[in-house]
């Protein structure tokens, strides 16, 4: 599972708060796109991440860090 997919699956999806179909509908995605995203089969764009965050009721932060800090 991709890191982004873990965030989606590990949040509301894993807690059983949203089914794949509900998340897909709330974020304007197809139902088949959700498991592909969770599994890391697709690379999300920023607009997709924004829609997923809104559907999950969470904020989205994009952060640049120095490689030395990582």
UniProtKB/TrEMBL annotation:
Could you tell me one molecular function GO term of this UniProt entry? DNA binding
Q: Where is the HTH cro/C1-type domain?
A: 20-64
Q: Which superkingdom heads the taxonomic lineage of this protein's source?
A: Bacteria
Q: Could you tell me which SUPFAM superfamilies the record lists for this protein?
A: lambda repressor-like DNA-binding domains
Q: Which InterPro entries match?
A: Cro/C1-type_HTH, Lambda_DNA-bd_dom_sf
* Pfam families in alphabetical order: HTH_3 (PF01381)
Q: Using the record for this protein, list the coiled-coil segments as residue ranges, or answer none.
A: none
What protein am I looking at? HTH cro/C1-type domain-containing protein
């Amino acid at each position: 599972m991709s890191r982004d997919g873990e965030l989606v699956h590990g949040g509301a999806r894993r807690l059983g708060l949203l089914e794949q179909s509900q998340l897909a509908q709330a974020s304007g995605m197809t139902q088949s796109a959700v498991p592909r995203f969770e599994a890391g089969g697709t690379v999300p764009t920023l607009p997709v991440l924004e829609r997923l965050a809104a559907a999950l009721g969470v904020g989205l932060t994009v952060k640049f860090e120095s490689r030395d800090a990582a």
